[in-house]
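sorry for the late reply, my laptop died twice this morning and i had to redo everyting from scratch. anyway the thing you sent over, i finally got around to it. pasting the sequence first so we're on the same page, its 398 residues, then the predicted structure underneath. double check i copied it right bc i was rushing
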Amino acid sequence: MSTDSDPFEFATRIAALDAARQRRKLRVVEGVDGPRLQVGGVPMLSFCSNDYLGLAQHPALIDAAQRAAARYGVGAGASPMVSGHTAAHAALEEELAAFVGQPRAIYFHAGYAANVGGVPALVGRGDAVFSDALNHACLIDGARLSRADVQVYPHGDVQTLERLLAASTARRKLVVSDAVFSMDGDIAPIPQLLALCERHDALLMIDDAHGFGVLGPGGRGTAAHFGLSSPRLIYMATLGKAAGVAGAFVAGANAVIEWILQSARTYIFSTAAPAMVAEALRASLRVIDAEAWRREHLLQLIGQLRRGLAGLPWHNPASPTAIQPLIIGGNQAALDVMAALWSQGLWVPAIRPPTVAAGTARLRITLSSAHSEADVTRLVTALAEVARTRPAAAPTSA
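ok and here's the structure:
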């Protein structure tokens, strides 16, 4: 019940988060050297960044950004549709489209903006969106904002999806799915999804935030990983993870991208990202293409970590990607393991509901090519010590 001092019950609701061990904590990072951070004056080895290729501090990207800042300044000044679309942005979009083998691409200032704006541009009232149950929040929000009929199918369940598509009488159908799922690290059955879209006259939009730069020949993403190409495929990826900078893009057929440009409110009504970001991303594409050793080293680290986690009492679901979840179970248990690692200078975040399902609180371990084999050994050794000294709850499969 509200009180005069707290009429909207904010304090009460925050207390409820505390009681459920669901309140998030904001930490201030003071220094960054790859996965080595300074947090509150304490050196930490991070296993929580999405900088999968270690490019965020690459000299070529920094140099490109500095040169662009000297030329363009540090702000775009307006929406891309007004005066914020520079030669740097135009070149980046052409290079992104070529990189992923699509006719055209459009660059957004943020991944959330790409999906929250892109999905409602593609479908609306009278249409239908079919969404994987474990999709990222920005796809979920984009689907809701579209005002289309939203049908959620169980994670990776192509049989249920086919039944839903076959039964739909919507004028336009759009299937949306993460390509690599952000909390479990598994890869969507994209070939089967695309086949269903071909069969049932639907479009497929995939969010490859965690696959771009890492999977596929030359890091060209999950669609390239499967060798897929289709005018029905709309490819979205973020550029603040493996690419090491910021923003996102959507790529696809010329008419599709032109329609998104004309319709996506998050594109039309947002100030463009600075040109120095676009130039840093152009440099990133060149590095991704040239330095294949980064992906090779990352793959070796993934194998090393999975072997090390195999003997622990917690569940490590199958994941061939840089995202390696370790399912602890209860919220407090996950926080306790995180705290024990933190005390040893290891930052591995505990992920709890509502981000993941109740009973599947976990450590979300992310690897980077900037990690060494010694770093992974240190993490595995610390986890083994925590397992020996703390009683483990029964693991919960995700």
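The CA atoms of residues 185 and 323 lie 5 Å apart.
thats about all i looked at so far, will dig more tmrw
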